[in-house]
Structure formats: structure tokens, C-alpha cells
Amino acid sequence: SYGAFYTTATHSATTINTAIAITWEGTGSSNNIAVDATTTSRINFTNAGTYSIDFSAELHSTNSSAKKIWIWPRINGSDVNYSTIVTTLTSNGDRIVVSRAGMFTVSAGDYLEAVFAVDDIDLDINGTAATAFAPESPSATISIFGVA
């Protein structure tokens, strides 16, 4: 089982310190793992097993104050302990890609979500448009591979 998913949407908060689920709008490839057709923040697992998961997000600051973001996974709506990414952006227009890899064991029918919270709504998850010399970038990606 495997899946590679992405989003090009801008994910921004309207309230600080509140978890927001990242939605997935594209599939690179998949087998027995899929984005839920109704709740697109959920990635559904057909088969039980242990999976290696690689996540990345492109962060963007829209002002010059220091602002912090937390990103972490949830399985079936429950936060996964010891999995949070935390970073701070400080300059207007800053962009940085954050990533994390992990291993998770799930049961058939379980779902995974990536969620985030910010302490300043001027920090978002936001890809970039294509240029004359480079293609566009997704705002977030997740790749999942069954290992056992």
C-alpha cells in the first residue's frame, strides 16, 4: 500500500491557537490509501499495517513580527504524541519548507490527518506560482509507504 498526496490551496487560520486540518486536493499515485471523498482532510487506509510517512509544508509570513506554527498528525481524530513540528518565521515575505518523517501503525479503516495551529494569523501554508524558469510548488505534500 502507498499514496502520495498534495495540496496547492493556501491554508490559513482565522483564529490563533486553534487546530485546522490540511485538505488534500491531488493524488500523485495511490494503492489502498486514498483521500476521503467527503472529508478531504482525511487520508483513509484500506489495509492494516505499519507505514512510513513523509510530510512537508511550505510556510509563508505576511508581516514582519515573529510568528509560530505547530503542525502535527492525528489518527482517527486523536493527536499523535511526540510528533509536532514547531517553527517561527520573523520577516515579511519569509518562506520556509518544514518536513517530518515518521512511522505509524494503523488498522484497516483508520484515517490520518495533518493539522496546524498558529499564534499569528499572518502565517500560512502556501505554495508558489509557476515562473518562467520553475514550476509551481504545492503548499503541502504527504507520501505514505507500507513497510509491514
Please tell me about this protein's structure.
- The protein is mostly beta strands.
- Helix content is 0%, strand content 53%.
- The protein contains no helices and 13 strands.
- The protein has strands spanning 2-7, 20-21, 26-31, 33-35, 43-45, 49-61, 67-75, 78-79, 85-89, 95-106, 111-118, 123-125, 140-146.
- The strands form 2 sheets. Strands 2, 4, 5, 7, 8, 9 and 11 form a 7-stranded antiparallel beta sheet that branches. Strands 1, 3, 6, 10, 12 and 13 form a 6-stranded antiparallel beta sheet that branches.
- A hairpin with a 2-residue loop joins strand 7 and strand 8.
- The radius of gyration is 15 Å and the shape is globular.
- It starts with a strand and ends with a strand.
- The relative contact order is 0.35.
- The mean pLDDT is 97.
